[in-house]
Amino acid sequence: MPILTVLALMALPFVEVWLMIVVGGWIGVPWTLAALVALMVLGVAVLRRAGTRAFRDADEALRSGRQPRGGLLDPLMLMAGGVLLVIPGFLTAVVGLLLVLPFTRPLLRWAFAGWAQRRMRRMQDRMEEELLAQGVRVPGQNPFGQNPFGQSPSGGAGAGAARGEERPATSRGRVIQGHFEPEGDTKD
């Protein structure tokens, strides 16, 4: 996946220049330059306003000891949109406008929140599988490596075995030898 991102970023300037040539041939060079300058000015205005609002909200949150009322995602989206509008080009301007417009931000916020939740769940499942492979008991699971509902942390019954993976013979972590002795009387 990172290689695709690198290739896309390398191709972006060529796509932007091609789009400028196409738009310039369609509406003329002076109007194309005017549109690019207008988008840059809009981007600077968005950055100034978003930065001022983000600073004011952060200052208010620090003084009151609460989280910022609008959250952190909206100011970040506004700033990213402003930066994309300042970059000369029509493709980055379209993405920047999507991040800046008030009626597209809630949809993008919802999509980002869903992506972040899925990513966190995958990372948690991967970490739990790594801990189980090392013989560490994961909180919320019984000693046999499955939760009380009979599924492994990733959702399937023995997900690693289902994919044909074998547990490593040796653990990669440090093993501390010891035993447990309960304190006090254990009579029921």
Describe this protein's structure.
It is a single chain. The protein has 188 residues and is mainly alpha-helical. Among the domains are: 10-101; 105-139. It contains six helices and no strands. The chain has helices at residues 2-27, 29-64, 73-86, 90-100, 105-133, 159-162. Keywords: Membrane, Transmembrane, Transmembrane helix. Residues 138-188 are annotated as: Disordered.
Count of strand segments: 0
Radius of gyration: 26 Å
Helix content: 55-70%
Distance between the termini: 56 Å
Number of helices: 6
Secondary-structure element series: HHHHHH
Poorly predicted spans? 144-169
Shape summary = elongated
Question: Quick one: biggest sheet?
Answer: none
* Class from secondary-structure proportions: mainly alpha
- Taken as a percent bin, the fraction of beta residues is under 5%
Mean pLDDT: 78
List the helices and strands and how they pair.
Layout lengths: L1 H26 L1 H36 L8 H14 L3 H11 L4 H29 L25 H4 L26
Keywords:
188 residues, mainly alpha, 6 helices, 64% helix, transmembrane helix, membrane
Give a short overview.
Among the domains are: 10-101; 105-139. It has helices spanning 2-27, 29-64, 73-86, 90-100, 105-133, 159-162.
